[in-house]
């Protein structure tokens, strides 16, 4: 069998804003464009309200002047010489670090001003008392607009400051954090009214799709074997892509051979999305064929073992009443590979086209075919839904009831994978298993940006780990609660639907419930290299709930301590 990196589930035991200068309301002159490194002509009053004393403002301008002087000197120093001795390089680095120090001082001053805007925000935006006439109420609107513009401009300067810091850091090793990473999720340390730092990600204007219009008498038999449920759902999505390419109806696996998908997925929803019968259950296939069920051809995508089938699973297929055709790989030469080749549609059609009524292509979890196309929000197939593969209606409603009961509209969800993850992560070039104190610091940074009062914790960690994590997650001197699903209690009604339908306590149902609660959150923090996390990200993209603050836990960092391998 070709060597491969195991999934996390298998190692489980069971599993612009534009930069502009604000102008006084009565000033009709055109604003002067400011330098990218300047704060600009910020007024010390917004709508007649003093945001900070003039003395502080002068000190703030002085900080900028000092910073620009040092930066100009640094640039002249770097540009005036083409050959440097070691000592000159050292002095250059000292100058860069000096510039970094000034930038951090500027950032501190900017954040101080930002915090003062938060204190005024509620007052500016507050409803006018009933005793005030409508004319007075109208005059409050420009104040609010100006205030929001001021906050936006200030936030832009903080972003620029952070970007300059990252650029200077790119030639230095600072701790264990990967430098030079700059995106929309900069660790700005700002939050609050007026600017939505963690706004929703805009959905794609268009998707690259194909139509799924299967022939009624041609079928693709789905086989998914590797790992736990999350892996199987990825496999199932790839089977749908192949079924559409090959114009075949997809036969969903029997619960005697695979998971009972109708417990966790909305099976009817799949056909409703396409407006036609594109998939059938194994029982429907069995009823139609009676005692003549046969897989005419096995054209295996995975070469070793062919179709990822061992003798046990071959026998289990036969026990379902299926007669099996010859099992052969599409690319026998792949058996010698240590990593699956990337393939495109042009590679697929000649190999998998067949006149056979029922064909199987085997487990597709490790198949690397049109990955970007398949993984795009909404998937690769043309349909009228947000997502095709999604939780059942009962699970979705139960998740909503849990959120209403325990969390409210604004919460962070954290998938904190631990069980079986230490060894799995440490086998990688970059370990994904973080010490609890480091993980807590990373979580706090997201909480500061999201300004959320609580965190939903989806984890398989032991209580010793989660208790320590909770003791370390503080913001402004107050603990940020980590909320986990409680054990079933008949006096609580949020999960009554599941128990009335005999789904309560089912491990796969509870896992899908966890995914759904995470997918509904304002901000999501996932575990890198976890297919459970990837399935949540897929749902968030499809449901348009993904946030610009979504990230993997401690993204861009390495664990500050890594144990040796055995």
Automatic annotation (TrEMBL):
Keywords: Carbohydrate metabolism, Fucose metabolism, Glycoprotein, Glycosyltransferase, Membrane, Transferase, Transmembrane, Transmembrane helix. Residues 1-28 are annotated as: Disordered. Its main location: membrane. GO terms for biological process: fucose metabolic process. It is a single-pass membrane protein. It is found in: Membrane. The chain crosses the membrane at residues 56-77. One of its GO terms (molecular function) is peptide-O-fucosyltransferase activity. One of its GO terms (cellular component) is membrane. It comes from the Eukaryota. Belongs to the glycosyltransferase GT106 family. This is O-fucosyltransferase family protein. It comes from Zingiber officinale.
């Amino acid at each position: 069998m070709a060597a491969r990196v195991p999934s996390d589930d298998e190692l489980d035991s069971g599993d612009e804003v534009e930069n502009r200068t604000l102008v006084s309301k009565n000033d009709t002159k055109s604003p002067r464009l400011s330098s990218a490194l300047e704060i600009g002509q910020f007024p010390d009053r917004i709508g007649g309200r003093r945001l900070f004393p003039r003395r502080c403002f002068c000190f703030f301008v002085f900080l900028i002047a000092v910073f620009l002087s040092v930066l100009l000197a640094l640039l002249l120093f770097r540009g005036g010489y083409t050959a440097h001795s070691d000592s000159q390089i050292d002095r250059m680095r000292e100058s860069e670090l000096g510039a970094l120090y000034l930038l951090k001082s500027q950032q501190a001053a900017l954040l101080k001003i930002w915090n003062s805007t938060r204190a005024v925000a509620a007052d500016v935006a507050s409803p006018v008392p009933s005793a005030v006439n409508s004319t007075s109420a109208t005059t409050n609107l420009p104040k609010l607009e100006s205030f929001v513009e001021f906050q936006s401009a200030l936030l832009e300067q903080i972003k620029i400051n952070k970007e300059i810091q990252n650029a200077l850091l790119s030639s230095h090793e600072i701790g264990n954090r990967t430098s030079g990473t700059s995106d929309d999720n900069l660790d700005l340390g700002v939050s609050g009214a007026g600017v939505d730092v963690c706004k929703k990600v805009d959905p794609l204007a268009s998707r690259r799709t194909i139509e799924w219009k299967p022939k009624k008498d041609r079928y693709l038999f789905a086989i998914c074997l590797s790992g736990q449920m999350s892996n199987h759902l990825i496999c199932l999505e790839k089977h749908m892509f192949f079924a559409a390419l090959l114009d075949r109806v997809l036969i969903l696996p029997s619960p005697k051979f695979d998971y009972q998908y109708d417990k966790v997925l909305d099976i009817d929803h799949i056909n409703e999305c396409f407006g036609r019968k594109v998939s059938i259950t194994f029982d429907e296939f069995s009823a139609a064929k009676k005692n003549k069920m046969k897989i005419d051809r096995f054209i295996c995508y995975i070469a070793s073992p062919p179709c990822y089938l061992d003798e046990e699973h071959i026998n289990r297929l036969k026990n379902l009443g299926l007669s099996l055709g010859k099992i052969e790989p599409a690319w026998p030469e792949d058996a010698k590979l240590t990593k699956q080749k990337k393939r495109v549609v042009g590679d697929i059609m000649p190999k998998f086209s067949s006149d056979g009524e029922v064909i199987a292509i085997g487990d597709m979890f490790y198949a690397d075919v049109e990955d970007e196309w398949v993984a795009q929000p909404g998937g690769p197939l043309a349909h009228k839904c947000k997502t095709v593969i999604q939780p059942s209606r009962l699970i979705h409603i139960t998740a909503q009831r849990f959120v209403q009961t325990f969390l409210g509209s604004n919460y962070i969800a954290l998938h904190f994978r631990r069980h079986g993850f230490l060894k799995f992560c440490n086998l990688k070039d970059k370990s994904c298993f973080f010490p609890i104190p480091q993980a807590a610091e990373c979580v706090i940074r997201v909480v500061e940006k999201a300004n959320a009062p609580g965190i939903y914790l989806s984890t398989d960690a032991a209580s010793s780990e989660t208790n320590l994590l909770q003791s370390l997650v503080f913001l402004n001197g107050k603990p940020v609660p980590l909320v986990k699903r409680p054990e079933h209690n008949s006096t609580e009604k949020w999960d009554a639907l599941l128990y009335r339908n005999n789904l309560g306590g089912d491990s796969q149902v509870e896992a899908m419930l966890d995914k759904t609660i995470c997918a509904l959150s304002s901000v999501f923090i996932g575990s890198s290299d976890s297919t459970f996390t990837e399935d949540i990200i897929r749902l968030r993209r499809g449901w348009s709930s993904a946030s610009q603050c979504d990230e993997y836990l401690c993204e861009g960092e390495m664990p500050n301590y890594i144990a040796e391998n055995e």
